[in-house]
Amino acid sequence: MVSSVEQASRDDERLRVLRDELRKSEALIESLAKRRAERLAVADHVAVQEAEEERVRALSDVAGLKREIAATRLTGESAKATPSAIAQTARTARPKVEPGAHWWDVYSKASRTGPLPGSSPQPPAATAAQTNPTRRME
Description:
Helix content is 64%, strand content 0%. By secondary structure, it is mostly helical. The protein has a domain at 4-92. The longest helix is centred in the first third of the chain and has 38 residues, at 4-41. It is flat.
């Protein structure tokens, strides 16, 4: 069994390491953006693509580190929280469902009628090539 003081020390160290990694990844993203811009200036499309792929991976790393830091904070806070505070959070965190909406209809769109935005209500009219069987389409 680990004492609460030792666990808190471990958690602080973990958080420090995560923040250091986050700073390094953010600096890498900046340098990759500069490298990409430099390669664009000299029209080196292969290097541009490589820099962009590395930047996307670094952005993914940053997102993962931020999630990990948030989880570390939540874990630390939930250890200090009382059971009644946790129950209150659970009650208020439930999504609000509109009356008559299905459980799977998270945006309450099932009750809408008519065509969806951006869709045409009727199929487009046939062209002469589609209606004239003697006309060849090539």
